[in-house]
Amino acid sequence: xxxxxxxxxxxxxxxxxxxxxxxxxxxxxxxxxxxxxxxxxxxxxxxxxxxxxxxxxxxxxxxxxxxxxxxxxxxxxxxxxxxxxxxxxxxxxxxxxxxxxxxxxxxxxxxxxxxxxxxxxxxxxxxxxxxxxxxxxxxxxxxxxxxxxxxxxxxxxxx
Length: 159
Fold this sequence. Notes:
The chain contains 6 helices and no strands. It is mainly alpha-helical. The chain has one domain. Helix 1 (about 5-55) packs antiparallel against helix 3, helix 1 runs antiparallel to helix 5 and helix 4 packs antiparallel against helix 5 (about 115-135).
């Protein structure tokens, strides 16, 4: 075979290999990472902040009653209604486990069950920290392990 033909075949093979690698490996990894970033930015980080704010409102009562509670006041972003609306508007970024925990939490009316609130908070906090870990961002190992946010770390003793 002629030297030119061999070099053309090698060049074409390398180009084809790079195109296949890019299409089947690099692009899916990038898309997955972008989806995780979008989940963190759009749902998990704001919900984590809302949870911490609402826990802080009733922290002392939660600790004394050994019951994880979420407080609510008339300020728009600190109310249960605001959090419910926010979650419903961004639930497309949520995992199935978080949606299940949310349904059980939101279905409570006057009688709040410790397990439903705790399950919702723990699921959200663990998934929030897991996303941060997968994205290579700083995360809290204790929060990832227990699901109890740092703002009420004393509650970890009751688990």
